[in-house]
Design a protein that fits this description.
heterodimer; A: mainly alpha; Cytochrome Bc1 Complex, Chain C; Cytochrome Bc1 Complex, Chain D, domain 2; two-stranded antiparallel ribbon; elongated; B: mainly alpha; 11 helices
């Protein structure tokens, strides 16, 4: 029988290839690792609940790849950082898309990571023997949040600048070592070029390096201990017998990770990847926002979505507890989270048998959600443009006397509108004044305008008597249309009062 | 001819269309184009609507929809007002520099302000509007207060009573201390056709006529003959009369409020 030359060649090539693989496996054990990680048996009931970790891993991979490319284009110097981002956005082909992918993937990674964390907590998967897997996960969580924060600094715009300023002032509050900590963070007493290079080093070397190391351990632990089964009421974790039982069960009813379980991971990761590309193409990159300008008092910097809840919590905390909470809260919280499995590493895993854990999780999720929404709206910040851009509602300027109209002008010009809304437009820092005339009498309005109080500055020194008179005359017409007085003395005619200013004639 | 595989063709179309993806950032620092109506409206909404009203009228400050006013104020005077503000009043300057310590919002070039004025005239002016025969600009020292008092009694007092019942008092020293003579003159010459007076404190919805311009028609009490238009001399006298009621002992920063 004649064998064609081509077939011989293929046969030879296969033989050489096989030999090479065998050599590599002999020296490194790579094949064994690959085989074990792909075909190890996992519990059959491990269904869609388990995809979040893989999704986080996928986004992390995207971050590494897109981050490496971005690092080749980005200039980490204070003078050039902003311009290099504009260059990437406008000149580099698809540069903006790369930045969009990196930015959105970062958010998606954090989001998936937090869901993964919540799911593991909810299912009690941190219990024996996976305590250290959990600890590595908590550290990964901190590292990832650090990556997100330092990434925001890379934009070197107003948000980054003021975000750093706030971070530095928090560090400054530490007793005794405050100054040193701030200098360590900023690379000097102030935000400067040294700050950016410092954060660049953190963002591209220190934090990703730590994340890769922690991730390696995290994945190794997952392979070593196997993924946890779905929690079942009555299936109590008992360190003495758990491992034996788990191995017996997976041997008997388990399925190989590939393709049975990996299939779901691939479906979810594929869908998320498509969504990521779509969102990045549609919504574009994050920033860079305005250039930092310390003379611009209208800047209202706010952090990226992930940190909005901290922003809101800081704004709403009473000043007296700020320092202790800022300095003690985060380290204590992280330490508690990491140490959690060491207090309770046995017992029931089913959420229905762990009501305290479920309630705590609900409180944290709802609280963070509410604070995030508040952070987005930030009603405590004045609306700095309202005084020129929020028109006086016609129903509140109609049928007013010339003096009252001057008061309406004063209301805009003195920027009352930046904190006080009327007719649904204006800042939300102070109370809505649409119906103020029903709540305060003439004298009370004069006192409030001149002396301030309740978080309102005093305007006695900036407004003249005529300006105050006009302003209060206008405010007493704000009765929300046709409402009745809520207090005695409100809405009373004041036309004869102080008609002649003492200084005239 | 070689044919591209269909998938490759699709890919190249996709790549070519990527340049128009909605996420692509717009080029930086694009100034608002106030020559377009949309650009004008957005500039107006951000910077002017707070005082001059949502559509150029019915705000606390002078309506800008008054075609006669727009026709009467020369282009260079209008540009100066927008650029430098009006010292001693609540009108800030929007130009690239400020004059006389007026708070300047700044940042708008002369060319842009010029374009803004052009678009404003085409939006709110009227091609057939004629400039007022009475000079729009105030000149100090022309009028006579006692003659002004009698003109006030015949032409103004019907609505502008002391007790604030109809249109509200304009002889209130508090009011007069907050407005300039130019403000008084502009109000008398051009009126306020966007605004209704108030009827009485308990029935604001029963609107009276808008504030008439100098050429009337002026509201009269029932049965009285119609009033003649105001002359330029009448206006000078009225401003002088009202200015004389302002009083002298101004306190704090009021000297700037009641320029000149």
């Amino acid at each position: 029988m004649h064998i064609p030359d081509s077939k011989v060649a293929i046969h030879d090539a296969k033989r050489v290839g096989l030999k090479a693989v065998q050599w590599l496996d002999d020296r490194t054990g790579l094949l064994w690792i690959l085989r074990h990680s792909m075909f190890h048996r996992v519990p059959r009931n491990a269904k869609w609940w388990y995809v979040f970790g893989s999704a986080t891993l996928m986004f992390f991979t995207i971050q590494i790849a897109s981050g490496i490319v971005l690092a080749t284009l980005y200039a980490p110097s204070a003078a050039q950082a902003y311009d290099s981002l504009v260059y990437i956005d406008t000149t580099v082909p698809f540069g903006w898309f790369l930045r969009a992918i990196h930015g959105w993937s970062s958010n998606a990674m954090c989001f998936m990571m937090l869901i993964h964390l919540a799911q593991v907590f909810l299912h009690g998967s941190y219990k024996y023997p996976r305590e250290l897997t959990w600890v590595a996960g908590v550290l990964l969580c901190v590292t990832t949040l650090g990556l997100a924060f330092t990434g925001q600094i890379m934009r070197w715009d107003a948000d980054a600048y003021w975000g750093l300023g706030i971070g530095a002032s928090i560090a400054d509050r530490a007793p005794v070592i405050g100054n040193q900590v701030r200098a360590l963070v900023l690379g000097g007493p102030d935000i400067s070029g040294a700050t950016l290079t410092r954060f660049f080093a953190l963002h591209v070397f220190v934090l990703p390096g730590s994340a890769i190391a922690l991730l390696g351990f995290h994945l190794y632990s997952v392979l070593r201990h196997g993924i946890s089964e779905m929690p079942k009421v009555g299936a109590v974790v008992e360190p003495a017998t758990y491992r034996e039982g788990y191995e017996a069960r997976t041997k008997k009813t388990g399925v190989p990770f590939y393709p049975d379980a990996a299939r779901r991971d691939m479906v979810v990761c594929g869908a998320l990847l498509i969504a990521l590309v779509g969102v990045a193409a549609w919504c574009g990159p994050f920033g860079p926002g305005e250039l930092p300008d310390p003379t611009n008092i209208n800047a209202s910097p706010r952090p990226d979505g992930l940190f909005l809840w901290i922003f809101a919590a800081l704004a709403l905390l009473p000043p007296s507890v700020e320092t202790p909470l800022l300095l003690i809260g985060p380290p204590l919280g992280i330490a508690f989270l990491a140490a959690f499995p060491f207090f309770c590493n046995r017992g029931e895993r089913a959420p229905t048998r762990r009501p305290l854990s479920v309630i705590a999780l609900i409180i944290i999720v709802v609280g963070a959600g509410v604070l995030t929404v508040l952070g987005m709206k930030s009603p405590w910040s004045p609306d700095m443009n309202a005084w020129t851009s929020a028109p006086s509602p016609v129903e509140f300027t109609e049928h007013r006397t010339p003096l009252e109209l001057q008061g309406a002008l004063e209301f805009q010009f003195a920027q009352c509108r930046n904190c006080h809304a009327i007719g649904g437009a204006g800042g939300e820092r102070g109370p809505d004044l649409t119906e103020v005339a029903t709540r305060l009498s003439w004298d009370q309005l004069v006192r409030q305008v001149q002396q301030g109080g309740g978080n309102m500055p005093a305007y006695g020194k900036t407004l003249s008597s005529a300006e105050t008179q006009a302003l209060v005359a206008y405010l007493t017409t704000l009765d929300g249309g046709d409402l009745r007085a809520a207090i005695p003395g409100a809405l009373e005619q004041q036309s004869s009062r102080d008609a002649m200013p003492a200084a005239t004639k | 001819m070689m044919r591209l595989p269909r998938s490759l063709a699709l890919l190249s179309v996709l790549c070519a269309s990527c340049d128009q993806l909605p996420g692509k950032p717009a080029p930086r620092a694009k100034p608002i184009d106030v020559t377009t109506v949309a650009g004008f409206q957005s500039y107006y909404a951000t910077n002017c609507s707070g005082c001059h009203g949502v559509n150029g009228a019915q705000g606390p400050a002078r309506p800008l929809t008054d075609a006669s006013y727009l026709a009467s104020v020369p282009a260079d005077a209008m540009l100066a007002m927008l650029r430098d503000g009006i010292p001693g009043t609540r009108m800030p300057g929007f130009g690239t520099h400020s004059i006389g310590g007026v708070e300047a919002l700044g940042g708008t070039t002369d060319a842009q302000l010029q374009a803004f004025i052009t678009t404003m005239n085409s939006q709110w002016g009227a091609s057939n509007a004629v400039a007022s025969t009475i000079p729009w600009k105030h000149t100090a020292g022309l009028g006579d207060a006692s003659r002004g008092a009698s003109t006030f009694a015949t032409h103004c007092l019907v609505c502008h009573t002391q007790d604030n019942t109809t249109a509200g008092s304009v002889t209130d020293p508090f009011y007069l201390r907050l407005v300039s003579d130019q403000h008084l003159r502009t109000s008398i010459v051009f009126g306020r056709n966007d605004r209704n007076g108030r009827n009485d404190p308990n029935g604001r919805n029963d609107a009276k006529a808008a504030m008439p311009a100098a050429n009337g028609p002026f509201p009269t009490t029932a049965g009285q003959p119609a009033l003649a238009s105001l002359t330029a001399a009448n206006v000078d006298d009225l401003v002088a009369y009202l200015a004389s009621l302002r009083g002298t002992g101004l306190s704090m920063n009021e000297s700037k409020d009641s320029a000149p």
